Amino acid sequence: MPLIIHPGWQDSGPAHWQSRWQATLPDAQRLVQADWHQPDLADWVATLDSKLAALAEPALLVCHSLGCLTLLHWAIRHPEHHARLGAALLVAPADVERSDAPTEIRGFAPIPRLRLPFPVTVVASDDDPFCRIERSRQFAEDWGAELVTLRQAGHINADSGFGAWPEGLALLTALRERQTQAKEAIHG
């Protein structure tokens, strides 16, 4: 299954776990948005849809922060394309509805609340400055996702001390297994 890495607002630098995974996982591809600093929701969703359409088989999508919301908006706008995704790992979803959300990302509100039709794991921190854990719990429930809560992990990025993040790779492996089991259950 192709692995697509979707960073959030301002992209992920070389020390970020997403960049490290891209460099070390042979099947990883990075989704590149036209403008990482002034994100446009319609453009970001169209870029994701084009990337998924170009693949020969359903992808496993690994999103961070605003990238998570891009997936949710894609799912609302393109229900006919849901089969393009096999599973999703959503790490530190950004709460763009909070009162102190930066102006640049407020265009991603409202946050879609739909049950996703493929296996999803949400990874959230109990002290993420960009999304309270209560909100992450509600998002995971709304999206039909398994929730993994990390203690004192900040925004689960390089600034929070997450480099290669081997625990995240273990979550990715578990999600791949869930996706394989779901696929086998459908196809017998």
Automatic annotation (TrEMBL):
Top-level taxon of the source organism: Bacteria
Keyword field contains Hydrolase: yes
Molecular function GO terms recorded: hydrolase activity
SUPFAM superfamilies linked to this entry: alpha/beta-Hydrolases
InterPro entries: AB_hydrolase_fold, RBBP9/YdeN
Pfam families referenced in this protein's UniProt entry, alphabetically: Ser_hydrolase (PF06821)
Name used for this protein in its record: Alpha/beta hydrolase
Native organism: Chitinimonas arctica
Lineage, broadest ranks: Bacteria, Pseudomonadati, Pseudomonadota, Betaproteobacteria, Neisseriales
